[in-house]
Design a protein that fits this description.
Strand content: 5-15%
CATH architecture of the domain at 208-376: 3-Layer(aba) Sandwich
Strand order of the largest sheet: 1-2-4-3-5
CATH superfamily of the domain at 208-376: NAD(P)-binding Rossmann-like Domain
Number of helices: 17
Structural class: alpha/beta
Order of helices and strands: HHHHEEEHEHEHHEHEEEHHEEHEHEHHHH
Shape: globular
Bound molecules: NADPH dihydro-nicotinamide-adenine-dinucleotide phosphate
CATH class of the domain at 208-376: Alpha Beta
CATH topology of the domain at 208-376: Rossmann fold
Amino acid sequence: MSSFVDEIMAQVREKNPDQPEFYQAVQEVMESLSLVIEKHPEYRKMKIIERIIEPERVIMFRVPWVDDKGEIQINRGYRIEMNSAIGPYKGGLRFHPTVNLGILKFLAFEQVFKNSLTTLPMGGGKGGSDFNPKGKSDNEVMHFCQSFMSELFRHIGPNTDVPAGDIGVGGREIGFMFGQYKKLRNEFTGVLTGKGLSWGGSLIRPEATGYGSVYFAVEMLATRGESLKGKTCLVSGSGNVAQYTVEKINQLGGKAVTLSDSSGYIYDEAGIDAEKLAFVMELKNVRRGRIKEYAEKYNVPYTPVDPNLDHNPLWDHKAECAFPSATQNEINNKDADNLLKNGVYVVSEGANMPTVLEGVKKFLDAGILYGPAKAANAGGVATSGLEMSQNSLRLSWTREEVDEKLHNIMKSIHKASVEAAEAYGTPGNLVNGANIAGFVKVADAMMAQGVV
Ligand code: NDP
């Protein structure tokens, strides 16, 4: 069946030159789907695979804006509307200088399967810009967001496409974009998620991705009769996902010892407790400073990024659990070896595609508890789905209600992934499980809706 994977990958490479992250995401899914294709030739006959790797629509646009010095800046904006078979397109917006078409297509592709896994009716999409919010004033960020939305607004809507946040897009950016959308459309609707509480946001949405990834780890541990209590955890990143991952680890009796940003990482052997985490939140969300300040304040080691190193030393500490929560491919081959060598046997991916393909194979071969991103970090988009439901109902659920729904969704994603992995002869392989469970629902909807 590897001929199936080779055939599809050759097509993907030919049609999408220079998009390595997209190839990586497709390859991983295709390897899992080769098991499905064997049992269900109808999917091949109806060209479901060829259709699912082709975005329904790609929008690319100019985003001009004026900076504080009065100079004109030009960025590029994108929205990938990947698949709407089971609901409106849904997925985040990323503002980061590395953003390009290939990265957003990998993210949009992953999102299709992830959203299907959540059990909620959401299609998949992703978007963003090569705009770098770092070092920009609030005024500049607002001007950029307004210009970005001045084009995007005509392509999105509460029943069409509902973007959310991702790297570089948090509450501040969602606010500026929502304001502009509302002005242009003269409509107050749930067109974006991650909104503020007083204007349509949901409780627990900021926490959801991090909490969800820890809930997923807890489900994996439970299959071995274990809990998170007393476990040492490596966490990367220090943004939205990392912060709430640490919060939930603390609540469940674990100990988080690392955090990072793109300049370096801190190692706090005593654990990043609630008080230290409050400092990180203020540092990152209000002052928008660097994680190095943590090391200065709490007198712990700080290691700056060394571009000449062939591995990330953050992943080279003794621990039981790892929660990569920064960005794609942050765990390379050597990092995977280091994690295994140091005794890590739980990896729950808060970031999207944080592990290179060979690293994933190493985790699977080692038989550790490995929760791939599209399952482990689906709590964020699931809670965005709950925000959409509350917007439609014009009601707000309590913190406890939303958290309980999130927790149940993470349990059901874990269960569906375990069951699909078993049904297709690879018990314990949650990569196959998540890919297959996510795919089948979308594929069946596409079959039912004809060639569109
Ligand atoms: P934030 O922008 O809040 O934080 C990102 C963190 O990762 C920052 O600490 C940032 O450091 C670091 N980082 C980003 N890019 C790099 C890089 N190239 N190298 C090293 N460090 C980097 O983003 P989120 O926390 O929202 O997102 C983190 C990950 O989680 C992403 O992969 C995202 O796709 C994924 N995710 C997010 C969801 C959400 O709900 N927000 C949902 C599902 C997945 P610095 O400040 O220096 O750039």
